[in-house]
Amino acid sequence: MDNVDVVIAGAGVAGCLAARDLAKAGHSVALVERKAKEALGHDWWDAVRESIFEEVGMPRPEPPELMEHKDKTTVYPPLMTMSTVVPPTPGKIHIDRKHFAKRQIHYAVDAGVRLMDKTAVIGPVTDSNSVCGIAVRTSEGAQKEIRAKFTIDATGMSAAIRRKAPAGQGFPRVMKRGDMFVTYREIRNRTSDNDMGIVIFGIDNGVRWVDRSQTGLIDFFAGALNYPGRKSPRAAVREMMSKTDDVGDKLMRGGYGAPIPVRRCFDHFIGDGFLICGDSACQCNPIDGSGIASSLKAASLAARTIHAALENGRSDIEALWPYVAEYKRTQGADFAPFEVLQKCMISFPQADLEALFRRKIIKPESFWGSSGNKQKKESAIEKILKLLKLLDKPGMIPVLLQTAKLSKELGEHFREFPEQYDSAAFDSWKRKTDEIMASLPEKYYE
Questions:
Q1: Suppose 65 and one of 75, 99, 119, 360 were both cysteines; which one would form an S-S bond, judging by CB atoms 3.0 to 4.6 Å apart?
Q2: Which of 172, 424, 169 is nearest to 274 (CA)?
Q3: Which is more confident, 357 or 39?
Q4: Angle between the 423-438 and 397-415 helix axes, to the nearest 10 degrees?
Q5: Extents of the domains making up the chain
Q6: Can you state the percent helix, strand and coil of the chain, rounding each to 5?
Q7: Shortest CA distance to 399 belongs to which of 354, 337, 442?
Q8: Do 86 and 365 form a contact (C-beta atoms < 8 A)?
Q9: Is the omega angle on the peptide bond into residue 364 within 30 degrees of 0, that is, cis?
Q10: Helices (H), 312-386
Q11: Among 26, 25, 111, 78, which Cα is nearest to 355's?
């Protein structure tokens, strides 16, 4: 049995940063990862808000981690009867996930983190209703316990510890199917100089894209809410490839899929001595599932909170509350209204969603790639209200009014999350959250 100050499951975006920060603060940290360290990082690139690196004390990416980001994107509604050209989002860059993962591991190990790769998490070690470490299986098949004053689940959608945590932690152990996207992504060689990308939003309760931002490569993606009877994302990618003239015959990267959360973050992310972080806590954009910047922010807040708790010899929920409160009142408040917008849009038949785009009541540049930018979200809501008079579909009007109202209300409600731990105040906050979400009817109009 090993003993450390903090054990972190998952050496992804959130896990590596939290491990680095805690080790730099002088604490003993074990970072457990089921993959080999050389295999970490998705085999593709993703867009990320550039300012996050300075916020979390990490140098700005440099090539080859920093990739090209020169493309404009043609955004289509689901039936593709019209389009809007959207320029690259200011302040966002493309990073190679493999190189980023390698850099994060280097920072963590250099700070003194004990990396245990090729080690599977079996589940939490518990004492009564508290998590006090994890049980693991090494690559040699040996089982052992790692005891810790604090345990972080940063294992993403697998939620290896959250799923088996003691009941009554204040967050769900299992996610609902409709709260996640199933995806597939394949990157091929490109046989033309065309650098225009396309995005089809709202198609089959999801999104598809063809991205040409990287020289010589063409990136196909399809994702859909995990509803029964959904179309296979892989089949959707193959269909797009069959209709694309400049796709080559070589698989360059990707060729697999991964589930991603597309809902607001959980009501809170802590138990006694236990925290969840990143995708495990649904700290992502509910519109597009992006979560690199938000996971880095959450990990930084979690590490800062744990450091203060260790310095004060505490591990209770009250001591860990600042992590939850600061995230919910900032990044959580930026992202939460997007869930209302998402649920509204997927409720419409595709022809009616098409009409909303055509009349510019919903503008793709207001949310596509925005990463929760408050100004853009508010602009989208304001446009809905200002342009309602142009609708000739009266059944949609109360839906859009309700969407605008609830989006604003939910964002403001998140910014009023209790700063100090008080069970009665939190219960009241949670009841209001549930009331807001319950105001979205399952079927909006005939």
A1: 99
A2: 169
A3: 39
A4: 170
A5: 2-64+96-174+268-331, 177-261, 334-438
A6: 40, 25, 35
A7: 442
A8: yes
A9: no
A10: 317-327, 333-347, 350-358, 374-386
A11: 78
Residues 6+ away with beta carbon under 8 Å from 350: 77, 78, 79, 202, 203
d(CA 179, CA 446): 24
Second-level CATH architecture of 2-64+96-174+268-331? 3-Layer(bba) Sandwich (3.50)
DSSP annotation of 332 reads: I
Q: What is the pLDDT of residues 118-143, one digit of tens each?
A: 999 999 999 988 899 999 999 999 99
- Report CA-CA distances (Å) from 4 to 30, 73, 130, 148, 314: 7, 48, 16, 5, 15
pLDDT of residue 115: 97
Q: What is the largest CA-CA distance in the chain?
A: 68
* pLDDT tens digits, 171-229: 899 999 989 999 999 999 999 998 889 999 889 889 999 999 999 999 999 999 998 88
| Cβ within 8 Å of residue 348, ≥6 positions away | 356, 396, 399, 444
- pTM score: 0.93
